Amino acid sequence: EGRRREAPAGGVVAHARGLAARARAAGKGKVYLGADDEDASLEGEEPFFEDDNFGEDEEEGFDLAALEDDEELPGVHLGDAAWAPAALACVERVLKDDIEGDLTIFSLGVDEARRALALTIDKPSDKWGAPSVDEIVAVARVLNEALDVEAEAGRVPAETAAAVSSPGAERAVTLPEELSRFGDMPMQLTFDDAESGTTLTQIMAYVPPEEDTQEVGDDATWKLAEVKANRGEKNRPMTRKQRNLRWQIAFGDITKANLHLDV
């Protein structure tokens, strides 16, 4: 019996093997395309669910849900698979040589048991770092073709498959490394508050230092962001006290940071 998956908010996913062709999610949801979908361009089309088998795995060895558990965690996570470095080299080569644009690795996970990769791609030239649907589809197809070549050469297991996604509008942010890139956008921060001795989660705005400096220290100043979640009932403006609040937070005390989409 097919398993129906609700489309999670965040990025766009194209899995080139084993998923129902042309099952698409609306809004901020995820998009899944099958390997044999001849329509690679999705621009201007209405999103839809084609059938009740949305997200059904045709190959029992591939579990997309398991791969997505840590997809928001940036970085490369190869695990213990002996073939993982070859898979990483393949991904890097495809993004550098075979795909147009400035796409880079946001995160990469390897599932040795299922012979699967979970790749999330970043687009530095985009304000939100979000590649287009067409770019994600192109990467999924080209990468899976390249993995077939690697498998024939014995560098990765046969039928190794890749799921490709975008980080999503509320992507994880690495601080302080990405502060210069996303510092003018509201972020949801989870941090250890030294004054109260508790862990707080607030939607914050970065307050740049008054001096013009290119160096980032060990901490930064933050204030409440002017977003709906920080306003009062009936969407009233923040109070003067709220606007004047400041937090001096060490980057080491920030346990999680994500962009915040004000909707």
UniProtKB/TrEMBL annotation:
InterPro entries: DUF7912 (IPR057234), Ribosome_maturation_RimP (IPR003728). It comes from the Eukaryota. Pfam families: DUF7912. Coiled coil: none annotated. GO terms for biological process: ribosomal small subunit biogenesis. This is DUF7912 domain-containing protein. Residues 173-260 form the DUF7912 domain.
